[in-house]
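We close this part of the discussion by returning to an individual protein. In the encoding step, the backbone of a single protein was reduced to a row of integers, each denoting a local shape. The sequence in question and its structure tokens are set out directly beneath this paragraph.
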Amino acid sequence: MKWPSAYLLLSLTIAGCHVGPRMENFEQARRPEGITVTIKIRGATAERVEGELLEVREDSLLLNTREAQGGGGVVRPLVLVPYTAMANVEVEKLKLRMLDNEDEPKKRKQDLEQLRLLSRFPQGLSRPLFDELLAAEGQTTIDVIGGK
């Protein structure tokens, strides 16, 4: 009768331990918006796109760039950046460089999943919600950076 009690006590002790990052120490988990990513465009020596990560798609990332324009206007706030156009992706305050793993498809898939969970819409955007976002930004179509 002593051994089952010891196993139960050990199980409860282990279950009470916390391993890994905690929400209160992870700033991105305590705010409603997605994380900020900076994307260097392939072939462009100085072009970078920076913005809030809205959605991780199968072939691209959807960002809200909010690039300011003289006179208070906004240029191409919602942009889609295909993975094929990306030279590198840096994620705000995380040591994640997604495209450094091109030769490791399993690692790249894990990085994309981590990005998806940190985006504003980890469940994905429905077509009606996507259309509402475009309308709210005064866009009828989405700008694609680097072509497809």
Summary: Strands lie at 36-41, 48-56, 60-64, 67-68, 74-75, 78-82, 86-91, 143-144.
